[in-house]
Write a structure and sequence with these properties.
By secondary structure, the protein is α/β, with parallel strands linked by helices. It contains 20 helices and twelve strands. The chain has an eight-stranded parallel β-sheet. Helix 4 crosses helix 9, helix 6 (about 145-160) crosses helix 9 and helix 12 (about 280-290) packs across helix 13 (about 330-340). The protein is globular, with a radius of gyration of 23 Å.
């Protein structure tokens, strides 16, 4: 019998940015530690997050500026204060009211000021200081991506944040002499970026240590594509399908679907798979190995893209006119097995247009797929496969994901808002849902969660918004919406405490997650 990743596990989907604190955004400090403690105290053994990479266009973690770096907005001011790198008055000056949305403009400004001050004190330390010794080891170990990312970020900032294809040609095309010269001019900015990445890794290692001690597994997220405006594409243009000016000759997306009648045009460049094959998928292998130093299990976003990608012409305005182009999934995954063995620590996000070939790729490596409970009540011919009684042990089941509306928002939604459903379809879904649960819908989020936890799914994961019964105002992302997503924050600690107690009772009732004895032992 093949070994599986999950066995009656459960937990919550919450990005660190949503966690409450007084610094405008959740981070890798006390807010993450307290969250892990809250999960463990209430029997949950899984924390799922979104990508941690530096966010690009629209503040989206799925349009990262690097596939290897972490987002400096997650640096904890409290940790820097504890290390003596900022003083108490500087810490207080960074505090912001706990609002319901992340003010990214203010947060980015604050974090840049924070790390500028902290870096000055850090580089003034004696070279033999333990922190400087750790830093030197980090820079040496990560040099294969860190040097290029730091230069990319410093250059991007110096040119007002425009895409690398709009830089002067000598920088756009990576003229060696020009880059060497500008590196000297931007030395202080580059050093600060090195420092930021070192501190991010150090702070997250503390989070990981705490999670391991309490029995909480970290599930990360790997977007299959990278942003065009990223250090990866700038540095290794040969791995992507670009024109002479560096712009995508073809773009990634998906055909018309539940969320959009014209499809989703993501704009990411597609891979030149022949180039990747020629060096035995070295970039992909390095990318996967890197994320597995940050998390225990990786959800592969748009898994089907390893079998075939939706290719859209580079000048297209919508994704409707694309075509499916084959991808070398088995070759890539065989390389992953060579590096990491079996079972591979992956969750396959197998949604959308799923063919027998995609299913074979998933099943050949015994990867758990996912089930979205919201999709169980529509008119799609496959909707019955999303009903909880159909869940198999080798799957991860969700009430919804970061791309879905909240359960309450979905249940009370109107036609055309965040989906392609008509008024009649919305009303039909609502009636089917009520009939299925045999309720009046007043507690619809718990109807969903109870059936999810009672199902046979190997893991049950719920967005924290759903245990709180929040509406569409708490939605994390609306696919196709160019701005305004990714900003929701958890503010009502009292309501959270009540919801977690309710969830803990359900967890014990369904024998999921951490047992009562484990919780008691680990929290002593």
């Amino acid at each position: 019998m093949p070994q599986t990743l999950f066995n009656k596990d459960c937990g919550l989907l919450t990005h660190p940015s949503s966690l409450p604190n007084h610094f405008g955004i959740g981070d890798f400090g006390p807010s993450s530690i307290e969250w892990i403690e809250a999960l463990a105290a209430h029997g949950q053994n899984t924390w799922q997050i979104l990508p941690l990479n530096p966010a690009g266009y629209g503040d989206s973690p799925y349009q990262g500026l690097s596939a290897f770096a972490a987002n400096p907005v997650f640096i904890s001011p409290e940790d820097l204060n504890a290390r003596g790198l900022i003083d108490d008055s500087e810490l207080m000056a960074l505090q912001m009211p706990l609002g319901e949305r992340v003010d990214y403009v203010q947060v980015y400004s604050n974090k840049t000021e924070l790390t500028t001050r902290a870096a000055l004190r850090f580089f003034a330390l004696e070279t033999g200081h333990p922190l400087r010794v750790e830093y030197n080891a980090f820079c040496q170990a990560e040099n294969n991506w860190l040097k290029a990312f730091a230069l990319f970020s410093a250059l991007k900032a110096s040119f007002g944040g425009v895409a690398w294809t709009d830089w002067p040609a000598k920088y756009r095309d990576r003229d060696a002499v020009a880059l060497e010269t500008i590196s000297i001019e931007l030395k202080s900015d580059i050093e600060r970026i090195y420092f930021e990445q070192f501190i991010l890794r150090s702070q997250w290692m503390n989070v990981q240590k705490h999670a391991r001690e309490l029995g909480v597994r970290l599930v990360g997220d790997l977007p299959i594509f990278v942003a065009h405006d990223s250090a990866d594409v700038w540095c290794q243009r040969e791995l992507f399908r670009l024109n002479a000016e560096g712009n995508p000759s073809v773009m990634a997306g998906v055909p018309p679907d539940y969320f959009s009648s014209t499809g989703q045009l993501w704009g990411n460049p597609l891979y030149d798979w022949d180039a990747h094959r020629s060096d035995h998928y070295a970039w992909w292998r390095a990318r996967l190995s890197k994320i597995l130093t940050w998390v225990d299990v990786v959800r592969i976003d748009h898994f089907r893209g390893f079998d075939a990608c939706w290719e859209v012409p580079g000048d297209a305005e919508t994704a409707a006119g694309g075509q499916w182009i084959p991808a070398p999934g088995h070759e890539v995954f065989d390389a992953f097995v060579d590096d990491h063995g079996l079972p591979l620590p992956f969750i396959a996000e197998d949604l959308g247009v799923i063919t027998p070939e995609v299913e074979k790729l998933r099943d050949d490596y015994n990867l758990p797929g996912i089930r979205i409970q919201q999709f169980a009540f529509g008119s799609d011919p496959m909707s019955h496969t999303f009903l909880p009684e159909k869940y198999v042990a080798n799957c991860v089941a969700y009430s919804g994901t970061h791309d879905n509306d909240t359960v309450v928002g979905w249940f009370s939604s109107e036609a055309g808002e965040g989906s392609t459903r008509s008024k009649d379809e919305v009303e039909a879904e609502r009636k089917i849902t009520l009939d299925y649960f045999g309720t009046d819908g007043s507690d619809i989020h718990w109807d969903f969660i109870r059936s999810l936890y009672r199902s046979g799914a190997g893991a049950a994961i719920v967005p924290v918004q759903d245990i709180l019964g929040l509406g569409s105002e708490a939605r994390m992302n609306t696919p196709g919406k160019p701005s305004g997503s990714w900003a929701w924050r958890l503010t009502d600690r009292e309501a959270l405490g009540t919801a977690l107690k309710h969830l803990h009772c359900l967890t014990q009732e369904t024998s999921r997650g951490l047992s009562t004895s484990q919780v008691s032992l680990q929290l002593r």
